């Protein structure tokens, strides 16, 4: 079972008719663009932090009610100021390496949640230019509309916000985004519904943006519950390999049993390896294979280009070769 903390809700902010921000009465270290995993009744769900660690005094997640979505409905219907929530530590890799980078951001609907966290931190601490393309059904569904206007007014030379409203412009296509060619040297971040992200990805590829400058955030509802599950042990064949791990700038070498998942090994050895869902449905435990080979038992989040780049999920990885080198940098 994952270690979690109990956190009191300080405030609930109604952002739109179907979206609320849950302000937490706590503080912790996190990076802009990361997410929290919350216990929502009998299930666990991942929600992005819409607050900025560099601007906001309290962390907050923003949740949009989804039709037939148990977790979002549970939060919107049950959580109030004073409610105590079970919360896993911040996780996720959807965060800029440098806040000084020029950023081209695509957000669809509630996908603005981690994106506005990145925007606020980059404007407060960074020096680069930021272009945001934000798609919504109509004007009333634009989350953080007022906050985005204020930021654009405050930083007119650094922040450009481009709204796309389906009610006025129809569904966007890759062709519609060809006007973004002047910004193809920027680091691109995409978050939103799958069809929107596919269109944005196609546009960026057609404009020649390299794969290593395109960062995508995907979330899939968890089928398990990391607040309750125990570590699954697979049958052992008694064999071990050697794994070298670069984590937080420190190098570690361990014997890795072929039946044990990489994340389980690292946690067993006392390393603070990042993770959240432990079922291959989020990117919190993603790492890169520098040498050797692993096989993943399950993967619902990484695409083929991620795999081609050597990205794997530690919570689902078993060793194949006798020596494996991985890095979390």
Automatic annotation (TrEMBL):
Pfam families: FAD_binding_6, Fer2, NAD_binding_1. The keyword Oxidoreductase applies. Residues 2-97 form the FAD-binding FR-type domain. This is 3-ketosteroid 9alpha-monooxygenase subunit B. Its EC number is 1.14.15.30. InterPro entries: 2Fe-2S_ferredoxin-like_sf, 2Fe-2S_ferredoxin-type, 2Fe2S_fd_BS, Beta-grasp_dom_sf, Cbr1-like_FAD-bd_dom, FAD-bd_FR_type, Flavoprot_Pyr_Nucl_cyt_Rdtase, FNR_nucleotide-bd. Keywords: 2Fe-2S, FAD, Flavoprotein, Iron, Iron-sulfur, Metal-binding, Oxidoreductase. Its cofactor is FAD. Residues 241-329 form the 2Fe-2S ferredoxin-type domain. GO terms for molecular function: 3-ketosteroid 9-alpha-monooxygenase activity. It comes from the Bacteria. The keyword Iron-sulfur applies. It comes from Kibdelosporangium banguiense.
